[in-house]
Amino acid sequence: MPGFLGGDVLGSSSQLNLFSDGLIRGNFAVGPIDGSGSNVEMNVFGGFIEDSVTAYAGSVINFSGGIIATSSTEQLAAEGGVINMTGGTLNAGGFARDGGTCNMSGGSIGSRFASGQLVSQAGGTVNLTGGTVRDRIFATDDSVFNVSGGTFGRETEARTGADLRLIGNSF
């Protein structure tokens, strides 16, 4: 995708592929914000995203390369949708909530300039099987966070009502 997009919504029955020469500016919604979407897919193979991206119900974000960099702590969010992170870099954080799922098997969250966190919030599920979370994993009320691989920083927090599962004995 040449050029840039910004502040846009990717609607139902749509696919967007972002390659190394692509740029997305502003908040970007993958799927309609009201959760009525279906068959919506965003593939990030490279390029640069300057602000947050959210996967709403009926949508999938496959993030295998590129950089998402913003001053916001929430850069990649699954709000009813699914995020599959196998590579690339988030400078700050990834979130799952309201029926959303974030699967991280590669890539990195955080940089030497920004703390990195991976968070499951109410109604969300995070599955960490690989990759690096620089600083913190965090499970809030009524969420699920499964850790069976990968590396993460010094902070691990699970609030009352959260389900944080450490599977295995080496991370």
Model description:
- The chain is mainly beta and 171 residues long.
- It has no helices and 24 strands.
- The strands form three sheets. An eight-stranded parallel beta sheet has the order 1-4-7-10-13-16-19-22, with no helix packed on it.
- The radius of gyration is 15 Å and the shape is globular.
- The model has no long low-confidence stretch (mean pLDDT 89).
What layout of secondary structure does this protein have?
Blueprint: E1 4-6, E2 9-10, E3 14-18, E4 23-25, E5 28-30, E6 40-44, E7 48-49, E8 53-56, E9 59-63, E10 67-68, E11 76-79, E12 82-85, E13 89-90, E14 93-97, E15 101-104, E16 108-109, E17 117-120, E18 125-128, E19 132-133, E20 136-139, E21 144-147, E22 151-152, E23 155-158, E24 163-166
Parallel strand pairs: 1-4, 2-5, 3-6, 4-7, 5-8, 6-9, 7-10, 8-11, 9-12, 10-13, 11-14, 12-15, 13-16, 14-17, 15-18, 16-19, 17-20, 18-21, 19-22, 20-23, 21-24
